[in-house]
Every structure is written in C-alpha cells, then in structure tokens.
Amino acid sequence: MQEAVIVVPCYNEEQRLDGEAFLRFSEQVPNVRWLFVNDGSVDNTRSLLDDLCRRAPSHLSVLHLPRNAGKANAVRAGLVSAFASEPAIVGYLDADLATPLSELPGMLAAFDNPNIYGVFGARVALLGRHIERSTTRHYAGRLFGTVASRMLGLSIYDTQCGAKLFRAIPEVRAVFCEPFTVGWVFDVEILARLKAQAKKGLLPPLESGLMEFPLTYWRDVAGSKLRGRDFLRAGAELGKVWWTYR
Predict the structure, then answer these.
(1) Assign residue 210 a region: left if phi > 0, alpha if psi is -120 to 50, beta otherwise?
(2) Among 18, 83, 201, 242, which has the minimal tally of Cβ within 10 Å of its Cβ?
C-alpha cells in the first residue's frame, strides 16, 4: 500500500472523536499517517488532539488554526501541509467516522490503477451494504447531487461524502493552492477545479481519472453541525461555483 496522509478537520469534536480508533488503525495500517486540523475549537479538542498525537507521533500529528475558519478552509490548510510531506496519496475524512476507517484500505487500493487520481466515497444503499441515513437528508442529498452532477456535466452520484482521496501529483496539488470561494459545497468546487485542469489537458478527463467507491458502511452520527437552513445556503453556493467555473 502506498504512503498516504489523511486530513481530519476537527471543530469542537471533544465528545465525538474516537482517538483509540485512529491509534488502532495506525498500528494495523502503518503506511497511513493522520493530520488532525483543529479548526479553532472552543471546547477541549485542542488538548485532546495534543494528547492523542503524543501517543503515536510518527503516525499522528496536529495543525492548530488560530480561529475557526470553517471546514473548507480547515481541509485545504491540512491538505497543503500534507502535500508538503510528499506522500503518494492525500485525502480527508470526517472526524465523526461516519465513514468507518475500515473503508480506507479498499479506497487506497484503487490507486493501484495508475490512471486514477481521485477516489471518492459514495453512500449508495445497495443490497449487502449498510448505509444508515435519515430519509430527509437522503432525498435532500439526492436532489443536491443531481443538480451538482448536471452543473458539472459529470455522472457523479455523491459529491458530498466526507471521504475523499487524491493522488499527490502536481496537477492535483494545484487544485488546492487557492482558497475556496465557497464553504459548504467546497467538494463541488474541487470537482470544478479538477475539470478545469482536465480541460487544459493537464489531467485526464474526470470520467476516467476519478472513481466513486461504494461504501460498505456509513451512518449518520449524532451531533452533526448541518442544519436545515444550510441546504438553502448550499444551493446558493452551488450557483456561485457554476458562475465562477462556467
């Protein structure tokens, strides 16, 4: 398995972060390193992360942001730092482990195909898989995903799953050089930037360079910071992405 650095954005995750799960995974899969980004938390997350990283300093590290910058900026700051350490693969994963760590080996194995430069988790409720998602969020997500897919001109099922991996090549690294123009739908902006790179001939077409990985397990975790009004904001941000990269 290729060496990977995976970013975990954290904002007030004192009650939800399962540090022991990350430590166990690091012992089992030593080629994966973790970079926690403390996004200006106001609870005990900072101390929790510092203590956790001291227990496995070769596999776990932390980046403290001076103030809350939002998930998009926390992810980008972490990825910029991750690229600097020159791993083969970088990515990000939600701190609540809605996507369990057990999914990562399969996602990482997809990069054995040299043509793949991005692998995205997809929450598809197929027989034999266990995707636990509220009905409201499922249908809101399907509506959003359909609009985003049409806007991008790309047949992608799930743009918003918080488990995404990228091959750490210069053309992908360039996608994260500039701050995102949106907050909630930065995943869509990543796709729009990758598509812009492909249109310039710097990357193969997204249809052949990206892979959606149907997750075996995924579940809504209590304590989500997403609220109903955020779906309206996401729609407005989607329009902004379209206008910016049209």
Answers:
(1) beta
(2) 201
Q: What is the pLDDT of residues 92-119, one digit of tens each?
A: 999 999 999 999 999 999 999 999 999 9
Taking 70 as the threshold, does the pLDDT of residue 228 lie above it? Answer: no
The domain segmentation of the chain, as residue ranges, is: 4-245
Q: Which amino acid is located at 111 in the chain?
A: F
**Using an 8 Å Cβ cutoff, are 140 and 226 in contact?**
no
Q: Could you tell me the pTM of the whole model?
A: 0.94
Residues 6+ apart with CB under 8 A from 222: none
Structural contact between residues 167 and 88, judged by C-beta atoms closer than 8 angstroms? yes
Structure tokens at 111: 């990069």
Pair of tokens at residue 85 = 């350490």
Handedness of CA 187, 192, 196, 202 (dihedral sign): positive
DSSP H helical segments within the chain, as ranges? 19-28, 45-55, 71-84, 104-109, 135-152, 170-173, 186-199, 206-209, 228-245
Fold of 4-245: Spore Coat Polysaccharide Biosynthesis Protein SpsA; Chain A (3.90.550)
Q: What is the mean pLDDT of the chain?
A: 94
Residue 24 makes CB contacts below 8 A (sequence gap 6+) with none
Average pLDDT for residues 31-53, to the nearest whole number? 98
Please state the rounded mean pLDDT for residues 116-128.
Answer: 95
